[in-house]
Amino acid sequence: MGLYKIKKVNGEKMVFCDDTRIRILIDEKTLSKKVKELGNEITRDYKDKEPVLVAVLRGSFIFIADICREIKIPVAFDFMAVSSYGNSKVSSGIVRITKDLEFSIENKEVIIIEDIIDSGRTLNYLIKNLEARNPKNIEVCVLLDKDVPRKTENVVKYKGFDIPNKFVVGYGLDSAEKYRNLPFIGYIENE
Ligand code: IMP
Ligand code: MG
């Protein structure tokens, strides 16, 4: 019970966990290739600089662990946690900082590392909040960009994948705290 079981259904790999069926959207190989490319871009753009990677917890913990090892210059790390969903799948629209940075970012080159952009509210709020601390510069690196109509301006400089408007899990992303440790990105099919 509760084990992730991988089975092929009509030639397609699916993951079953109890009564939940998860379809793979982006597999491990594709993820790691893209993360490498993003790391190379950041390395090139920030050589001779020493950026601070600011990861947004908890969804970005796997992404930052992987991308930082593809960045071939010295970087500093800091972490923030925000909450906008609670345990729901629909953004509440209210963003709350539940853990703030440890260090000052004044006069620093900041790269926000985010797992996914949905409505864009979380990122917009974060950028405004961090800008008020007078960094030298802020750029955004996001793994997944959901195909949803968005009123907010495009703030993403480094982007992994455009994905359909589905609730995805795995590679750090959860559904009510489950499935973060799946090594791929998938979506729950039977909910
Ligand atoms: P936004 O504020 O609507 O852009 O939502 C961004 C945050 O909501 C992300 O940082 C994620 O933590 C979470 N989120 C948005 N879409 C998904 C999803 O499909 N699966 C899991 N978490 C998501
Ligand atoms: Mg997040």
**Euclidean distance between termini CA atoms:** 19 Å
CATH topology: Rossmann fold
Low-pLDDT regions: none
Query: Residue share in helices?
Result: 10-25%
C-alpha Rg (nearest Å): 17 Å
> Which small-molecule species are bound to the chains here?
inosinic acid, magnesium ion
The CATH architecture term is: 3-Layer(aba) Sandwich
What's this model, at a glance?
The chain is of the alpha/beta class and 191 residues long. The chain has helices at residues 28-45, 61-68, 121-131, and strands spanning 5-9, 12-17, 20-26, 52-57, 76-83, 96-99, 109-117, 137-146, 158-163, 168-169, 185-188. Inosinic acid (IMP) is lined by residues 56, 59, 84-85, 91, 114-122, 167-168, 173.
Provide structural commentary:
By secondary structure, the protein is of the alpha/beta class. Helix content is 19%, strand content 35%. The protein has three helices and eleven strands. Helix 1 packs across helix 2 (61-68). The mean pLDDT is 92. The structure holds inosinic acid (IMP) and magnesium ion.
List keywords for this structure.
single chain; 191 residues; alpha/beta; Rossmann fold; 6-stranded mixed beta sheet; 5-stranded antiparallel beta sheet; 3 helices; 19% helix; 35% strand; globular; binds inosinic acid; binds magnesium ion
Write the layout of secondary structure elements.
Elements: E1 5-9, E2 12-17, E3 20-26, H1 28-45, E4 52-57, H2 61-68, E5 76-83, E6 96-99, E7 109-117, H3 121-131, E8 137-146, E9 158-163, E10 168-169, E11 185-188
Parallel strand pairs: 4-5, 4-7, 7-8, 8-9
Antiparallel strand pairs: 1-2, 2-3, 3-11, 5-6, 10-11
Helix pairs in contact: 1-2
Magnesium ion binds at residues 56, 59-60, 115.
